[in-house]
Specification:
With 90 residues, the protein is of the alpha/beta class. Helix content is 33%, strand content 9%. It has one domain.
């Protein structure tokens, strides 16, 4: 699983299929789920994200998954929850 830090989705061009394929190739797994964090949520750590997502990921895993007990989570080295607002309309 690859977690895209908040605000980095455009910088990474993660919606571009070619960028997704490049990420898949670098990850070197047979399956890759890309998770884009929502702007209205606060995430304190990658561990809390894992806790929240793990049950759903296990539902998606095939029954013969060899690493079911240790699903790898990856992200960039960017902060997961910091966003600088320039303007917000009330």
């Amino acid at each position: 699983m690859f977690v895209v830090p908040l605000g980095v989705e455009r910088e990474m061009d993660i919606f571009n299929i070619e960028e997704q394929r490049a990420l898949f190739k670098v990850a070197q797994f047979t399956r890759l789920i890309i998770v884009i964090l929502g702007k209205n949520h606060k995430y304190e750590s990658l561990d809390l994200i894992k806790t929240e997502l793990n049950p759903k990921i296990l539902d998606l895993a095939p029954s013969d998954c060899s690493n079911i007990s240790a699903i790898p989570y990856m992200s960039t080295n960017k902060t997961l929850h910091v966003r600088d607002y320039v303007y917000e309309d009330a």
